What does this fold into?
Amino acid sequence: MKLCRFYIPENLGAASGQGAAARAEGGGVATEARAEVVAGVIEGALVYEIANLFEPGSRTGRAWDLAEVKLAAPVQPTKIVCVGRSYAEHAAELGNEVPKEPLIFLKPPSSVIGPDDAIVMPAISQRVDYEGECGVVMGKRLRLKSKDEEVSIADYVLGYTCLNDVTARDIQKKDVQFTRGKGFDTFCPVGPVIETEFEGKFTVTTSVNGVRKQAGDASQMLFSVDVIIRWIAQVMTLLPGDVIATGTPPGVGTLAAGDVVEVAVSGVGTLRNPVTSA
It folds into this structure.
């Protein structure tokens, strides 16, 4: 099942009989509703509005043509927890040691943007890099006393998505810690959807202007998704909607204004974002 969040199109009627009935009952889409981002389930060429992203069965009775809506970031996390150097080859290409334990850091919620939204290059950075990743979206609250606690981690996961851990590399190296280099507004594109039917095996690729730059798969990761989530949950409470960026494969490189960067995760789709200057 593919979950999303989207803008209700202005002056656009619902695409199905259910939607038409909803318009008849409600007198059309209100101006406030047009500006509102709502949750949905994508089925074929239609997107069905749902009342709650975490309850896919909560359909409101309205639907639109998928081609006529603008997708937003599929989730509003309270935090984005990232795993650094999750692939040995990526650690090596940047001259770093391979971590013996998951190396975690945070990106702020204000860095999140959706599909086709622009990544803005900050004026104070001379090198901005792409880092394509598979993102895990939490579906339930999780806090562990120990990483070895007997619990099925899969039961707490809503699904998987594409994520770009955009990084001001020069600032990251200057500061040593990651907050500033990773935390600029627009530095966390997420989307286009959340895929709930996912076995945890995936490939991730990144392309810039149509040229493939990165390729990796889950089998190459130093730590499994299960291990990563357990490691994080023994430190901090994970809330519904929180996103875990599982790490980037080798091949990171620079972005420039005018570029278009695409991150694809098998079974999920492709996240596309243009790049602009500040």
